[in-house]
Amino acid sequence: MTDRECVAFLQAVLPRLGLRWLGFRKVHKLVCKRLGRRLKELGLPGLSAYREFLERESSEWANLDRLCLIPISRFYRDRGVFGNLEEIVLPALAGAGRTRRGLLCWSACCASGEEPYTLAVVWRLRLQERFPEVEPRIVATDIDARLLERARAGCYSISSLKELPPGLRAMAFTRQGNRLCIRPKFRVVEFLEQDIRKEVAPGLFDLILCRNAVLTYFAPSLQREAMERVVSRLRPGGALVIGVHESLPEGLAGLEPWPGTRAIFRKRSEEATSRRQDKQMNRGDAERSRTKIKPPGRQARQESDFPFACPLGVHRRQLLLP
Q1: 52 and 126, same domain (yes or no)
Q2: Which residue in 32, 44, 181, 219 is deepest, having the highest Cβ count within 10 Å?
Q3: Number of domains in the chain
Q4: CA 265, 268, 272: angle at the middle one, nearest 5?
């Protein structure tokens, strides 16, 4: 199986899975390696035979779907985003959550748990002293049971922590052989197996991180469906975080950029959303009222209506406009 053959295969089958090739361009070699192993398991000579097998055995599409799961994650990924969370967003959410004495957070598509554990470490070491009465609850979900087992184990290679500030790393982890394991007091994450294409975490959240998965790998229609469900779980005034190279689906309502941040959006209140929609409707009505609608049929125009010269042999009165 050549790389070209694998690319052509993925471009053909990914849409059947609700996925898009654009998101897989840089990581397709990982999927190709998995496909090579799958071909050996099935005793098939190549991808053409595998496509025929897929058409005969519909249950194999589920196996192919699992081969396309991308587990790339690391601690403190996108330093600027976590800086914005620490300095701007989490303090604002904690202030609003004082009356509830809680802060409910969801890390969607969490892979091996690096993102939710980062959130727990940042809160405990950087913010808890400022908001001692606020206790965050962190829920993390992923479709891959094996990745969730690693997340619950909480031990990682040193390379996956290279972006985490050294002070946080020293205080939050202990070394066990060639691995770094998160200390017990930071193991406050509840991990759930869940397919975001079909369901969302229970609860109404103050903070949702949905980064580098849905808006990267899913096809546009599936992006919209999934993100509408995600946003429905966000409390008014709450924050949605996406990947720094991602953009929200067109027409996704109820969100506005969080001032002073990157890739973070705030959910407007229902009242603010309604006012915004009314304003847009009023603007549309005003624009339509300014538009002149020509009457139907062909209408003769006066000679004075045509300041331009007529073509040779055509009398001006013969010109009719629709």
Answers
A1: no
A2: 32
A3: 2
A4: 145
Average pLDDT, the chain: 87
Question: Which stretches does DSSP call E strand in the chain?
Answer: 102-108, 135-142, 155-157, 173-176, 179-182, 189-193, 205-209, 234-241, 255-257, 264-267, 299-300, 320-321
Assign residue 56 a region (left: φ > 0; alpha: ψ between -120 and 50; beta: otherwise).
alpha
Q: What values do phi and psi take at 184, rounded to 5?
A: -55, -40
Lowest mean pLDDT: which of 26-40, 60-74, 261-275, 298-312?
Answer: 298-312
Residue found by looking up tokens 């017990």 in the block: 184
**Contact, 69 vs 170, CB < 8 A?**
no
Q: Token pair of 217, please?
A: 């790998």
What is the rounded distance in angstroms from the CA atom of residue 305 to the CA atom of residue 317? 10
Do 63 and 120 lie in a common domain? no
Q: What's the rounded Cα separation, in Å, for the pair 172 and 214?
A: 29
Give the model confidence (pLDDT) of 122-134 as tens digits. 999 999 999 999 9
Give the Cα separation of 35 and 68 in Å (integer): 9
Residues 85 and 207 placed together within one structural domain of the fold: yes
237, two tokens: 């005034």
Residues 261, 259: Cα–Cα separation, whole Å: 6
pLDDT digits (tens, 9 = 90+) for 66-118: 999 998 899 999 999 999 999 999 999 998 766 667 899 999 999 999 999 99
pLDDT one-digit tens code per residue, 289-311: 555 444 454 444 443 443 333 33
CA 79/CA 90 separation, integer angstroms: 15
Domain span at 60: 3-67
CATH number at residue 229: 3.40.50.150
Same domain? 31 vs 169: no
Cα gap 136→223, rounded to integer Å: 28
Q: Is 14 helix (H, G, I), strand (E, B) or coil?
A: helix
For 145-163, the pLDDT digits (tens) are 999 999 999 999 999 999 9
pTM over cut 0.85: no
